[in-house]
């Protein structure tokens, strides 16, 4: 299949799973944007739980949701694709239904709802990547994954914006948003299931018999990914913490940075991914992402040394560099894993990658908030050093265990 050298919307939609699947992604992300950013507020406002209890239940749900990933990987390796995507959406619909049925003050039902939401949120990325890897190949796959991320971020932002407008209605509005979210998940699940995308286990089994080398463990790549994903929480956690508590800036600044980050991802994810994929290997691009992200951390450190009148605008400017690093990272990481893994273990490889991503997202808030009180050098210097080490490890890692099964894939995909 030809690589998308010029971004053609129809070809991009086809490589991403088709029009119905694109609509399913948009509807699912729109529903997620309506509730996910305000789930903590729902627990505190509607269910009258304390903030620490609500946050603990949400964290437990996210972490416990990671436990399901090995099973999801095995399910994918049996050939399921659109069915797993639809199941991840249905599980989230069940979580929202439990949320709506939870009486005020009942923390255990809220925790169960958070668990189902966590399972769906963790299972979806691996299932989606496996589906795209089945319908698209080579560099076309990279662009398709980037397109899906841009579409999802746009819909998430639209949902969050709509929910923000509706929040003036208080607890009643939050319940209404939850109900709409559940309906969105159900509609998205039906659309995703109707695509009927499956892999061919027989071909995968034949590929397994030809592969004398074991499947790649990618330990270095997965460990580095835990550090890389910290960049995803910088606009939501690190920058608001620094701007509001240290520089005493208006909350408008963190909000504006978050919106700008979303706009950059939506507008640049596809062209940046397509541009770099034509010139560099995925591993080189991923290493470059680490360098750019680390440079942004050092930029935040330098911005913090300026006078307060200049520090806040400087942080906002450096956040653009961080967003570019995030875009480069997101456009290469999943694609590299999909290219390295032989067909018969693609699901398990993507599941392990999602485990590392989920773990990084789970621990990064605690790490960031623990480093921040020790000063900018500890926070930004520590993150920059860890990211540079990770980028170096990714660049120097060899793709052992993929010589026979991976040679064919790299020749086809240019990993």
From TrEMBL:
One Pfam family, short name: MFS_1
Source organism of this protein record: Actinoallomurus oryzae
Keyword Membrane: yes
Subcellular location: Cell membrane
Name of this protein: MFS transporter
Membrane-spanning residues: 21-43, 49-72, 84-101, 107-133, 154-171, 177-199, 220-243, 255-277, 284-303, 315-341, 353-372, 378-398
Keywords: Cell membrane, Membrane, Transmembrane, Transmembrane helix, Transport
Gene3D superfamilies attached to this UniProt entry: MFS general substrate transporter like domains
Key word Protease present: no
Lineage of the species this protein comes from: Bacteria, Bacillati, Actinomycetota, Actinomycetes, Streptosporangiales
Protein's membrane topology: Multi-pass membrane protein
Primary location: membrane
């Amino acid at each position: 299949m030809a690589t998308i050298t010029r971004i053609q919307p129809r070809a991009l939609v086809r490589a991403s799973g088709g029009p119905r699947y694109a609509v399913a992604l948009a509807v699912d992300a729109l529903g997620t944007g309506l509730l996910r950013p305000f789930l903590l507020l729902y627990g505190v406002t509607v269910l009258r739980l304390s903030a620490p209890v609500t946050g603990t239940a949400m964290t437990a749900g996210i972490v416990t949701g990671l436990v399901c990933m090995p099973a999801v990987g095995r399910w994918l390796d049996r050939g399921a694709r659109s069915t797993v995507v639809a199941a991840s959406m249905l599980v989230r619909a069940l979580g929202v239904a439990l949320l709506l049925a939870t009486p005020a003050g009942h923390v255990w039902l809220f925790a169960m709802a958070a668990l189902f939401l966590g399972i769906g949120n963790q299972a979806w990325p691996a299932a989606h990547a496996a589906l795209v890897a089945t319908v698209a190949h080579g560099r076309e796959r990279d662009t398709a994954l980037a397109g899906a991320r841009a579409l999802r971020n746009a819909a998430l932002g639209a949902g969050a914006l709509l929910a923000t407008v509706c929040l003036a209605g208080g607890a009643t509005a939050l319940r209404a948003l939850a109900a709409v979210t559940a309906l969105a998940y159900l509609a998205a699940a039906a659309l995703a299931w109707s695509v009927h995308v499956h892999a061919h286990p027989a071909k995968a089994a034949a590929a397994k018999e030809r592969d004398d080398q074991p499947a790649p463990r990618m330990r270095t790549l997965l460990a580095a990914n835990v550090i890389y994903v910290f960049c995803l929480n910088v606009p939501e956690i690190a920058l608001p913490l620094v701007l509001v508590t240290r520089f005493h800036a208006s909350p408008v600044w963190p909000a504006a940075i978050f919106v700008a980050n979303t706009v950059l991802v939506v507008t640049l994810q596809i062209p940046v991914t397509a541009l770099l994929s034509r010139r560099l290997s995925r591993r080189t691009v991923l290493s470059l992402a680490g360098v750019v992200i680390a440079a942004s951390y050092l930029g935040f450190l330098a911005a913090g040394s300026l006078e307060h009148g200049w520090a806040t605008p400087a942080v906002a400017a450096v956040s653009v560099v961080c967003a570019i690093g995030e875009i480069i990272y997101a456009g290469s990481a999943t694609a590299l894993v999909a290219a390295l893994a032989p067909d018969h273990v693609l699901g398990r490889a993507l599941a392990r990658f999602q485990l590392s991503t989920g773990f990084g997202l789970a621990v990064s808030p605690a790490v960031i908030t623990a480093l921040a009180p020790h000063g900018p050098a500890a926070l930004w210097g520590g993150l920059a050093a860890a990211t540079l080490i990770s980028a170096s490890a990714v660049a120097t890692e060899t793709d052992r265990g993929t010589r026979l099964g991976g040679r064919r894939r790299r020749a086809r995909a240019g990993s």
